[in-house]
């Protein structure tokens, strides 16, 4: 008796094929440096975020937003030295960084600040201190 339907291209059952394909996809993403991030959001916000992610400049805008909200501590040597106590963190919220500069400003010599860190302090002063650093 002749079998009907599409010929089998793989000896594996369909669920096993799907599992292996998903594993291969995860490995390709890992090699590209991509990671999956899952968020729990209200339905309307999740739909909005999915729609925004399809925009051509979404990655650049997201990077700009994160750059303003989270600072990589190792990029700013004086900030890193001010945070010598407590747990080591890779990223710090911008407002916390401003508070750390404000709280420990007596230990900072403006001459030791690189130009990028000095610009950061000025930006944080304008944003969180209304132009002032209460030190």
The overall pLDDT average reads 89
Uncertain stretches: none
How much of the sequence lies in strands comes to: under 5%
Count of distinct structural domains = 2
Please state the oligomeric state of the protein chains shown. Answer: single chain
- Largest β-sheet summary: 2 strands, antiparallel
Total number of β-strand segments? 2
| Separate helix tally | 6
Backbone shape: elongated
Structural class of the helices, strands and pairings?
mainly alpha
Distance between the termini: 89 Å
Output the helix-strand order.
Answer: HHHEHEHH
Relative helix content: 40-55%
Order of the strands making up the biggest sheet? 1-2
The gyration radius over C-alpha positions equals: 25 Å
Write the SSE topology.
Elements: H1 14-32, H2 43-53, H3 58-69, E1 70-72, H4 77-82, E2 91-93, H5 94-103, H6 115-128
List the defining traits of the structure above.
6 helices; two-stranded antiparallel ribbon; 2 domains
Describe this structure as you would to a colleague:
This protein is mostly helical and 135 residues long. The protein folds into 2 domains: 14-54, no CATH class; 67-128, no CATH class. 53% of the residues lie in helices and 4% in strands. The protein is built from 6 helices and 2 strands; from the N terminus they run H-H-H-E-H-E-H-H. A two-stranded antiparallel sheet has the order 1-2.
């Amino acid at each position: 008796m002749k079998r009907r339907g599409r010929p089998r291209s793989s000896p594996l059952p369909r669920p096993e094929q799907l599992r292996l394909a998903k594993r291969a996809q995860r490995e390709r993403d890992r090699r590209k440096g991509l990671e999956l991030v899952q968020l729990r959001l209200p339905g309307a916000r999740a739909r909005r975020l999915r729609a925004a992610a399809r925009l051509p400049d979404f990655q650049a805008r997201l990077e700009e937003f994160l750059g303003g909200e989270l600072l990589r501590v190792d990029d700013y040597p004086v900030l890193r030295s001010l945070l010598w106590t407590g747990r080591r963190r890779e990223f710090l919220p911008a407002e916390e960084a401003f508070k750390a500069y404000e709280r420990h400003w007596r230990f900072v010599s403006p001459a030791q600040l690189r130009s990028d860190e000095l610009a950061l302090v000025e930006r944080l002063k304008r944003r969180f201190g209304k132009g002032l650093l209460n030190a």
